[in-house]
Amino acid sequence: MKRDCDKFGDFLSKMKLLSLAVLRDNLPYCFSAFYAYDAQNKELIISSSADTQHIKAIFSNRHVAGTIALDTKFVARIKGIQFTGQIRSADERAETLYLKRFPFARAMEAEFYTIRLDWMKLTDNTLTFGKKLIWER
């Protein structure tokens, strides 16, 4: 049987869009972004412009929270991850991983950021209804 931690990586590798929450002026602010998953480092890599509200916000508080969910209308197929982590500027390796997954990003003037995953909860109704798995760094 597959180890539970593999279920997180399998899901994160298949999906591509996350919703992320940051604190902007001490108020919650959410945005969506494409991401690439770095399985080796347990990080999510995103791309964004430095002049956006959400990127400006991370420089005052690097702690973030987010969700990644399968889009389904069937309750038995609900699957998704809630996570917390810390965001920072990405290194060249992370940027390369992102561009491999999303080559169109080469045409954009954007910067790259990694979210170091600290905690995740996977809800997976395909295992059993309401099944929840926890992962912590």
CATH superfamily: Electron Transport, Fmn-binding Protein, Chain A
The largest pleated sheet is described as: 6 strands, antiparallel, barrel
The overall average pLDDT, rounded, is 88
Strand portion: over 45%
CATH class descriptor:
Mainly Beta
CATH fold label: Pnp Oxidase, Chain A
Number of strands: 7
Query: How many whole angstroms does the radius of gyration measure?
Result: 15 Å
Please tell me the CATH architecture by its name. Roll
Structural category: alpha+beta
Which stretches are low in confidence, meaning pLDDT under 50 for 5 or more residues running?
none
* Number of helical regions: 3
Gap between N and C termini: 22 Å
Main β-sheet, spatial strand arrangement:
1-2-3-6-5-4
Q: What's the structural domain tally?
A: 1
Characterise the protein shown here.
This protein is of the alpha+beta class and 137 residues long. The protein has one domain: Electron Transport, Fmn-binding Protein, Chain A (Pnp Oxidase, Chain A, Roll). Helix content is 20%, strand content 46%. It is built from three helices and seven strands. A six-stranded antiparallel beta barrel has the order 1-2-3-6-5-4. A hairpin with a 4-residue loop joins strand 2 and strand 3 (43-48). The protein is globular. It starts with a helix and ends with a strand. The relative contact order is 0.22.
Briefly, what is this?
With 137 residues, the chain is an alpha+beta fold. It has one domain: Roll (Pnp Oxidase, Chain A), CATH 2.30.110.10.
